[in-house]
Amino acid sequence: MEVSKRVALVAHDNRKKDLVEWVEWNREALLQHRLICTGTTGRLVEEAISKKLAKGEKLPYGITKLKSGPFGGDQQLGAMIAEGNIDVLIFFWDPMEPQPHDVDVKALLRISVLYNIPAACNRSTADFLISSILMEEVYTPRMVDFSQYIERSIPPL
Q1: Among 1, 95, 144, 151, which one is most buried in terms of CB atoms within 10 A?
Q2: Set 74, 94, 127, 145: catalytic member
Q3: Is 74 a catalytic residue?
Q4: Closest CA to 123 of 3, 18, 8
């Protein structure tokens, strides 16, 4: 990971307000990184950051906006993680409301663990991540060797 991280920001509908408040609170730190967001979250994050910019000032890296989660945005993020294009995942998900795309959410969280991506699913963890000294320096995550799992023999059908 380079000094400037690729930070994915995602929030379920009932948690978007919390994520926007978190983004506003951590605006200066987030401006040092490249932001990738799903659907409506991206629009809200961009509005929250842009309203604090001086007239004519632009976001240093802009914001990459993917599809909405239920329309494939979570899967897009998962693919970006698998391709090595996401360094940190901030995902404010709603544990109290069933989601129509729960399988995609679970897959995204699973792939972040598989590829050893730091992931925050609530505001406290996001606070710890964004304030970590590791967010400001080059970091090489240690990858788990899954070759034994991949090369295992499977009995014939």
Answers
A1: 1
A2: 74
A3: yes
A4: 18
